[in-house]
Specification:
By secondary structure, this protein is α+β, with helices and mostly antiparallel strands. About 3% of the residues have low confidence. An eight-stranded antiparallel beta sheet has the order 5-6-12-11-10-9-8-7. Strands 1-4 form a two-stranded antiparallel ribbon. The protein has eight helices and twelve strands. The radius of gyration is 19 Å and the shape is globular. 38% of the residues are buried. A hairpin with a 5-residue loop joins strand 5 and strand 6. The chain has one domain: Alpha-D-Glucose-1,6-Bisphosphate, Chain A, domain 4, CATH 3.30.530. This is DAPG hydrolase PhiG domain-containing protein.
């Protein structure tokens, strides 16, 4: 095992305001502001968004090649602390044009149950998804919605989103994107090599895990994978996220089926700009989610009014 940096307490440095929003996201904010205004959770729709000040250096320069965690080595996230070479926060494009993002965000006062609840609750209607990132989130529609599964109180929180696919419309920076997010088990061998076992996650102190495959909105075209792992620290949780974008583009589940004419699609779908914008997006949306989630869960969570 390589030497690791220790896991600190949940330090909370100064927050800095986000001040740059592309025109399309400003218009989206105003549209959604009107829609949310009549909802019982409207007070959680914030115009002012923030990042923590110690993230700024990671925005300015891409990660070095030695700081990139290959997907095949994702089980290294089960090791204590952090890699000595760094790479807990950052973005980069690899030599083949694919994108990689690592992001660590803080969740003071949040529990694993709150996370599992949020990942189905936010997909019930577009206005809830917008709370997460009011400028960039348009809608997320769950494949479980039509069956009424999201409103079956006898199901656990994870049963309401794990195995579903969310059709998501959002902005990544100035880019308007439509994708499908297929939620899978962390130990899914086809996606993550089977290394993120339930026992391994538990022993490593993780309280929630959300892992997924990314697909084109309309085609059977795989675009990438991500993992969101919430680890217990003093004062709450820290979220360790990793995105591998465009690294294994394929039709269906077989990379060999990719037509010759699409072999250059990695650079079109990922690359440096998407890596940079995805890192910013992740930091802003999850810092805001951590801000609103305890209150939302207290007011609308299990056993409360208006939880559906």
């Amino acid at each position: 095992m390589t030497e690791r940096q220790p896991t600190p307490d949940l330090a909370l440095p100064e927050k800095v305001p986000v001040t740059c929003y592309p025109p399309g996201t400003l218009k989206q904010f105003r549209r959604m502001q009107n829609q949310v205004s009549q909802k019982e959770y409207a007070k959680y729709f914030h115009e002012d968004l923030y990042m923590y000040s110690d993230i700024i250096p990671a925005i300015r320069e891409p990660l070095a090649p030695g700081q990139v965690l290959p997907l095949k080595d994702v089980s290294q996230l089960l090791e204590p602390g952090y890699p000595k070479e760094g790479g807990e926060n950052g973005w980069c494009a690899l030599s083949d044009g694919t994108a990689y993002v690592a992001s660590n965000t803080r969740f003071p006062g949040v529990t694993g149950e709150m996370i599992d609840w949020w990942f189905w609750w936010h997909s019930v209607e577009p206005e809830r998804y917008a709370l997460w990132y009011p400028y960039n989130h348009v809608e997320a529609r769950s494949s479980f919605a039509a069956s009424g599964r999201l409103h079956r109180d006898y199901l656990g929180h994870r049963e309401k989103w794990l195995g579903s696919t969310h059709r998501v419309t959002e902005f990544i920076g100035p880019y308007h994107k439509r994708i499908r997010i297929q939620f899978v088990e962390p130990h899914d061998r086809r996606c993550f090599g089977g290394g993120l076992t339930p026992e391994g996650l538990r022993d490593a102190g993780y309280k929630a895990a959300v892992c997924a495959v990314l697909w084109d909105a309309y085609l059977p075209l795989k675009l990438g994978e991500f993992v969101h792992l919430w680890r217990a620290v003093e004062g709450g949780l820290e979220l360790r996220s990793r995105y591998w974008l465009g690294h294994q583009v394929c039709q269906g589940e077989d990379p060999a089926r990719l037509p010759r004419g699409l072999l250059g699609i990695k650079r079109m779908l990922a690359g440096e700009e998407i890596a940079y914008e995805q890192f910013l997006h992740d930091q802003i949306e999850f810092t805001n989610l951590a801000r609103i989630l305890p209150g939302l869960y207290s007011e609308f969570g299990p056993g409360r009014l208006n939880q559906e």
